[in-house]
Amino acid sequence: MSRSEELFAQARQVIPGGVNSPVRAFNGVGGTPVFFRRGEGAYLFDEDGRRYIDYVGSWGPMIAGHAHPQIVGAVIEAARNGLSFGAPTAAETVLARKVIELLPSIELLRMCSSGTEATMSAIRLARGYTGRDKIVKFEGCYHGHSDSLLVKAGSGMLTLGVPTSPGVPAELAAHTLTLPFNDAAAVEACFAELGGQIAGVIVEPVAGNMNCIPPLPGFLESLRAQCDRHGAVLIFDEVMTGFRVARESAQGLYGIRPDLTTLGKVIGGGMPVGAFGGRRAIMERLAPLGPVYQAGTLSGNPVAMAAGLATLELLSAPGFHARLSELSRALCSGLEDAARAAGVALTTQHVGGMFGLFFTERTVHTYAEATACDVGRFRRFFHGMLAEGVYLAPSAFEAGFVSAAHSDADIDATLAAAQRVFARL
Ligand code: PMP
Question: Is 55 an annotated catalytic residue?
Fold first, then answer.
């Protein structure tokens, strides 16, 4: 029995499913989740001492690599002064200023402790600001686990929401309209019918929770246009894409100015941080300035702020994102070549430091296309790569991430491993 198997058995006795977040349980791929002891740069080391090249990066935050000395140093220094005060600290303003400098659509920013809190608060704010209840989201996009956003699409447009999860009241889910991602015509039709009731549209500008699907030209533009025409709030959920696809995030990359932006992951550098911000007139509706309530005991935590600021400083260096893009490109094109040589149908998609692997022949633009890929083949590929010492996201529907710590040699080693695994698929 491996240490991971032992630890998983123990964990299951006291933690539901043995994990504190479901995908970690390897339900998507089968087998025993790997328990990690430590990370360094591009590598993770498991409890049995095995080394893996890591393409999960804690689901996004570890853009500078694991245990980066500058980030860990900043955290230790902050921790020496105390872990939490529940009162304002200078570091919160420094981090807010840095974010505002990188994302000009944000005039005021509020920190919280997770991406879920950020999106939940942003839609409450959009509702409070507009006095409307309906929210538009897209099929296959994930915005955390708050009630209003845990709603899956029906098949047709304008389908009223049904809860994906038991425990979400149907009356609440009915206010969430789910449309197909990358379908500008569906958005237009939805607004034509219900425009006056829609508080806001929330979208992952590059979808990263159904593998990795970039926006088709014109899709994000159509969201901006419809929100403008009907007085709805456009929310870019950049919890994953923020500072990941480009220094200026997806909004800068695609040249669209959202009204509100939600952030998480990278902004905390591995500590629990989320944030939401945007137009002053909307953000001023938030307590204590306005009546829309939102709060948090640990919001703006000084240790978390230190990690976030150190991370944003590192990724502000010239060439940081060009290097990430080059790593993603080299990895994706190398994997496609290796798959083709082995007669395996594989399509890859990447934007900046995030990528997706689809076991299919064609480019993927929609949830339906993403879910039609060969999941069984992905599972075999995942376990083959794991045995080779390459840690990919344990699900066919999650994006992968590279970090600044990945070297050309790491990519080469990954491709050599993939050649061996494809040959056995
Ligand atoms: N929005 C997006 C786009 C995400 O990818 C995630 C997490 N994967 C969330 C929101 C929720 O963030 P958290 O897990 O920090 O609550």
Answer: no
* Index of the ligand 1 atom closest to the CA of residue 265: 15
CB contact at 8 A, 312 and 95 = yes
Instruction: Provide the token pair at 227.
Output: 């929100």
Q: What is the mean pLDDT of residues 173-193?
A: 96
pLDDT at 59 over 80: yes
Distance 201 CA to ligand 1 centre (A): 16
**Contacts of 304 by beta carbon, 8 Å cutoff, 6+ apart:** 113, 268, 271, 272, 273, 298
Contacts of 139 (CB under 8 A, 6+ apart): 152, 153, 178, 179, 180, 181, 366, 367
Which residue among 315, 340, 366 closes a domain? Answer: 315
Predicted confidence at residue 167, as pLDDT, reads: 87
pLDDT for the residue 415? 98
Which domain does 372 fall in, by range? 3-67+318-424
Q: Measured from the CB, is residue 242 less than 6 Å from ligand 1?
A: no
Distance 239 CA to ligand 1 centre (A): 6
CA of 404 to the centre of ligand 1 (A): 22
